[in-house]
Amino acid sequence: MGGTYSLVLYGPDRYQLEAAAEAAFDEVRRLDQLLSNYKSTSEWSEINRFASDRPVTVSAESVQLLAACLEYSRRSEGSFDITVGPLMKVWGFYKGTGRLPHRAEIRSALARVGSSYVVLNSTARTVKFARPGMSIDPGGIGKGYAVDRIVKILREAGIQSAFVSASTSTVYALGTPPGEPGWKVTISDPKDRKRVVAEVLLKDESLSTSGNYEKFFMAGKHFYSHIMNPATGYPAEGMLSVSIIAPRAIDSEAWAKPLYIKGRAWFAQAQARNQDLRSFRAFTCEDGWEPKCAWLQ
């Protein structure tokens, strides 16, 4: 999925640890073949090629994951949207470093964006796009899903202490390292990556961070990042980075985008409305002359 995965494992049996790590990486390779839009042979790439023309039969796993994506979109008022593929391409962030498109290009791409245009038939296990030229992008959920799958495999293998990282943007702390109360994770200043603005101890929970420094370009004096606002067709502005701590990595990754796009006040209201979000912890760095970094209270 265009990223690097790493594992740190502790335990008394080296062979058990090595076998568990190999099983975990086998699962990552399997999911890469399922989800990656960097592989033309992946199942989701096949959806993108054919779903505008006809219903595409997919695996039960894809149906389940796509259904979760549509639910994230509904609950986030459309700010999480796996159909942003056309926008990522027109802005040059798909396999590229970015470019400033013409407004007509953005309008054309926006006409092909919207989770409501994904027709998912769970019984027949098919996916169909209601508009031509649509494409799904697993970038906002794929790594979190993979991390959760890795953690499941490690637990089933009897591993009690592990740290899982997907491109450093989504991590999961399983148990604790020897002699420590938790896994120490730092959050960096988005404008000075060597400076730490927050430090947390994680135990049996995930942390996902989305920042404008991951992919961006400058046009004139304006800064454009890869985090798209599906409502406008333009990169979201106002935030520099957000981090969410949650029990599952798929949740921390998925909800980081709505928080980044819609802001702290909106996310606080979403937590008040949704009981399952109240256990989440959020840390944001807002744009300004000096970055304003703080935990969401």
Number of strands: 14
Compute the number of helices.
Answer: 8
Strand order of the largest sheet: 1-5-6-9-12-13-14
H/E topology pattern? EHHEHHHEEHEEEEEEEEHHEE
Describe this structure in words.
- With 297 residues, the chain is α+β, with helices and mostly antiparallel strands.
- The chain has a domain at 176-295: ApbE-like domains (T-fold), CATH 3.10.520.10.
- 33% of the residues lie in helices and 26% in strands.
- It has 8 helices and 14 strands.
- The protein has helices at 14-35, 43-50, 60-75, 85-90, 103-110, 142-156, 249-262, 264-273; strands at 5-10, 56-57, 118-121, 126-129, 161-166, 170-174, 183-189, 192-202, 205-211, 216-219, 222-225, 239-246, 281-286, 292-295.
- The strands form 4 sheets. Strands 1-5-6-9-12-13-14 form a 7-stranded antiparallel β-sheet, with helices on one face. It has a 3-stranded antiparallel β-sheet with strand order 2-4-3.
- α1 (14-35) packs antiparallel against α6 (142-156), α6 (142-156) runs antiparallel to α7 and α7 crosses α8 (264-273).
- The chain is globular.
- It starts with a strand and ends with a strand.
- The mean pLDDT is 95.
